[in-house]
Amino acid sequence: SKLTSLGQLEMTWRSRVHFHPLLVRVLHKSRIRYYGKPEKKMDMPYQAYFEVADGSGMMSMVLWNSLCPEWYNSMKVGTVLLLEQYAIKTSYPFKTQPTPGDSQMKRFATIEISLNVRDPPTKISIIPEEKVKPEWGLPEVKYRFITRSELDDLPNNHSCDVIGLVTFVGRAERARKKEHGEDFWLYRWAHAIDGTSDQPFILELFATSQPDVFEHIHPMTYLVCTQMRVVRDLTENPSSTIYLTTSNESQIFITGWHKGQPYTKDTKVKNFIQWTKTQSEADQMKKTVIGGYYPFPRPPDNFLKY
Questions:
Q1: Which residues touch 255 (CB under 8 Å, ≥6 apart)?
Q2: Domain that holds residue 91
Q3: What is the pairing mode between strands 184-193 and 222-231?
Q4: 159-169 and 289-290: which strand pairing?
Q5: Contact between residue 107 and residue 58 where contact means Cβ atoms under 8 Å apart
Q6: Has residue 67 been placed in a domain?
Q7: Mind telling me which residue stretches traverse the membrane in this protein (predicted)?
Q8: Cα gap 56→107, rounded to integer Å
């Protein structure tokens, strides 16, 4: 059928009601948001953002309500979608923005694709990777992997992807979202090493929409975390408290989940796998720790500073 592109959509969307089908690749995926309120009677108040791209650039796509439980887990980073009967809306200005792996990619930020059960009922098809044709011109998923030795030079809030061997994982902890609210964030601390430094990556992992992965992070697993943000304490000794925290678009993968993921082609991932082959499992096992209370960033040495 006749296809349109994201670039054409941006130019012509105001003058149209019906749009030609779109062929796009998912580049980023946010966690699912629940926006239910006690006074509003909605069956499935869910929403999830994706960043999708074709040869012309990248645009946000929103999955609404009952389409979330039906499609969210199937739409992985790298998945190719054929979209028919979708709506176009002006962009929501306050949403989070992932950092694209390809800095040259054009971003269409004024509008977003809206996928709903009705008005109009969207038709979504997933194209298997082996049927994707090069002439469609869909971009590949690109990453920004860093090694532990590179981390110390990165600025606060820099976005990056990491891979490492887990040496410590803490218990799940909770933090209030608002001071007197009843909602909590669930998170856990982890350490991962990659052989490029004596220091591990210190990772603050908030529960993403991947409970099956979040709950099964354990020592000696190969952990991949994407769209992480650098956090530096810029006040005292900047190098002592550098760690990485998850963002709204972070994805986490552990051993058993890596097969077929786009990052397996990345050079730094291949280098890490080569390094693990030189390590003795028994030696690394001796250094691993699990559970317990992990105060971080550490409190100062004396009460006066505290």
A1: 221, 222
A2: 6-136
A3: unpaired
A4: parallel
A5: yes
A6: yes
A7: none
A8: 9
Residue 119's φ and ψ, nearest 5 degrees, are 55, 65
3-state secondary structure of 205: strand
Across 272-294, average pLDDT: 91
Residue appearing with tokens 């601390």: 189
Contacts 24+ apart (CB under 8 A), 237-241: 239/152, 241/296, 241/297, 241/298
Same domain, 183 and 284: yes
**CA angle 100-239-289, nearest 5°?**
85
Whether the Cβ atoms of residue 141 and residue 40 lie closer than 8 Å to each other:
no
Domain count, the chain: 2
Q: How many residues does the chain have?
A: 306
Say yes or no to pLDDT of 301 above 80.
Answer: no
Integer Cα distance of 60 and 10 in angstroms: 12
The answer to whether residues 99 and 53 belong to one domain is: yes
Q: Which amino acid is at 9?
A: L
| Coil, helix or strand at residue 244 | strand
- Bigger pLDDT: 187 vs 236: 187
Burial of 124 (0-12, 13-18, 19+ CB in 10 A): middle
The DSSP result for 226-241, as a single string, is EEEEEE---SS-TTTT
* CB-based burial label for 88 (10 Å; 0-12, 13-18, 19+): middle
Q: Using DSSP, how many helices (H) and how many strands (E) does the chain show?
A: 6, 16
Question: Is the same domain home to 224 and 165?
Answer: yes
* CA distances to 89, 227, 228 from 270, in Å: 41, 19, 20
Q: Do 152 and 224 reside in the same domain of the chain?
A: yes
Tell me: do 122 and 158 sit in the same domain. no
Q: Report how far apart, in Å, the C-alpha atoms of 3 and of each of 27, 104, 158, 222 are.
A: 20, 24, 37, 40
What does each C-alpha distance from 213 to 103, 116, 243 come to in angstroms?
29, 28, 21
Q: Give how far Cα 161 sits from Cα of 72, 86, 140, 148, 195, Å.
A: 22, 32, 16, 11, 16
